[in-house]
Amino acid sequence: MVAPPSISSHPLRSSRIASCFASTPSSKSSVDWLGGETPLHAAASEGQLVVVKKLLAIGAAVNAATKGGVTPLHAAASKGHLKEVDVLLANGADVNAATKGGWTALHVAASKGHQEVVKVVLAAKGADVNAADKDGATPLHAAASEGQLEVVTELLEAGSDVNAPDEDGATPIRVAAFNGHLKVVDVMLAWGAQVNAATKDKMTPLYVAASKGHLKVVKELLAAGTDVNAANWAGGTPLHAAASKGHLKVVKELLAAEADIKIADTANKTALLIAIEEDNPEIVTQLLKSGASVEAGKTAATALFAIYVTYEYLNTVNSVMDVVLNGVGIVFVLGIDDLFGEKLLHLATTQYNTLDVEVKLSSRLELQQKVLNCICILVNVSLIAMSMFCVANIKVRALHPKP
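Above: the chain's sequence. Below: its structure in token form.
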């Protein structure tokens, strides 16, 4: 959806100056001024009804447009000046005149929540309730984006298409969900909005609501029967999105709705691995307690491996250690050319005394009876040649780094 049109500030904003043009019949009544705005634009924007009438009476161009395509009707509608809008329409203002971005007066009024102006514009002959801007967004999209509940209802009652997609495939309910407007989502569902309508990149209303942490919207969409596991173009589910952003309550809600904790995206990352990478310890703990597999994933970049060999994840390690220690015989497998392999070797040679990679967990932990079994690393030939060292077994236990 394009940005709303704006009326710039300039000397004609003064109703006194606009009145001067109106008091003396002259071609100046329609003069272009700074970007193409006229005295009529100024009077309409400031709600100067008497001046608007005088300017129209002396021949001001009712549909004069700025360089951005803004007409006096846009200017009045944007500010919610009902009487000025009515007078402009009565004097031939084009109700569907669009800015360069494609916004009509209805888009403008809907976005700002001017319900009475919306009613007047809709009542005008030929008003297009489903007019689309350059991005395909309708006035309903504009109202939904800003959470203008009364206007949304007004537009729906006037025949606005609740499932109209913009050029990206986003429907009004997706826009409302993204911005967390619960009541608007409720109304749209009642009017038959498709709860699983996805954009071109396959993002559903649930996905965007989960990503933004809008818990109440997530609950409402789940109650309406949305697909909790619907994946986007990259294979990410709403659980991936919530885990990535650290929205713990949303994660819990999705898990309660039986979100599949084992799903991996196209990069072979589960929600658990993503939460680890984003350093969200509470999410990691919740996912592990809910049964997430520490070895899930098709590559060597497994969740546990990421936990133990990367400095950035030390906070996560501390948070999930109680959960991890309850497991037995966990195995890491590192493949050729694996990025984590390089990190592991770097860690071993620069921070610790031996080539047995002993990652610091906590000085207080006693892991003597719970040493995790690990497999030797397979490292590519070039890396071995450069480093000139042999590869040993990996042991994970508590210790202090060397000074």
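Residues 105 and 369 are 73 Å apart (CA to CA).
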